[in-house]
Amino acid sequence: MQNFIDAYSYVNLSFLMDGLMVTIQVSVVSIVLSFVIGGLLGVLRFANIKVVSRVIGLIVDIIRNLPLLLIIFFTYFALPQIGIKFSIFWAAVAALTIFESAMLSEIFRAGLNAVPKGQMEAGLSTGLTYRETMLSIVIPQAFKSMIPALVSQLISLIKDTSLAVIISLPELTHNAKIIYGQNEGAIIPMFVAMTVMYFVVCYALSLFSKYLETKQYNY
Q: Where exactly are the transmembrane stretches of this chain (predicted)?
């Protein structure tokens, strides 16, 4: 019990919260960028523009089959060799965005393909342009079916931020590691604290997804 009391001192908890805030910041920026880029890639592949779709498909398949850790190493250690240098924060964001964009693009493409083709034909027959039909008819219908998969992938992104500890990003796992590295008795308390913090953030996101699903269903 004394180990828990010592481990959960004000200084240590403040340090953990600082790490959690970095985790959330990296996650939010990566989620926004991944959502935009992944959505764009998914729509472009759905449009089935011959050369563009094939090139995007090849890139997406390559990225999806690479370990995220390798991409983190690449953005932080390899890119500076060709003159592209990121801070630790932006290296983590870039790596997560690259990886998650590829994952989300497949979710978007699958969701769009699940919409009956007749919906597109009906929209075009009323005089709407392809873009207007996509925005007002196809994408809204596809989004309903995509919500569970999208949220599941975004929750994975939040948990994947812990891999950035390898480049010393001062996120939750990194800060917890520093605390129990200075006090072996704090190992179990730190893992308990990390478990609770990751659970709260990820569970809150899952509840938000259920809220969105309910709203979409009622609508």
A: 20-43, 55-76, 82-99, 187-208
Residues 6+ apart with CB under 8 A from 164: 26, 72, 88, 91, 92, 95, 96, 171, 174
Digit-by-digit pLDDT tens for the chain (219 residues) are 667 777 888 999 999 999 999 999 999 999 999 999 999 999 888 887 888 889 999 999 999 999 999 999 999 999 999 999 999 999 999 999 999 999 999 999 989 888 888 888 888 888 888 888 888 888 888 888 888 888 888 889 999 999 999 998 999 999 999 998 888 888 999 999 999 999 999 988 888 877 776 765 555
pTM of the model: 0.88
CA distance 5 to 84: 45
Query: Distance (Å, rounded) from C-alpha 154 to C-alpha 150?
Result: 6
- Of the candidates 153, 157, 47, the one whose C-alpha atom is nearest the C-alpha of residue 107 is 153
Q: Which long-range contacts (CB under 8 A, 24 or more apart) does 101-104 make?
A: 101/33, 101/34, 101/37, 101/38, 101/41, 101/63, 102/38, 102/41, 102/59, 102/60, 102/63, 102/64, 103/34, 103/38, 103/64, 103/153, 104/34, 104/35, 104/37, 104/38, 104/39, 104/42, 104/150, 104/153
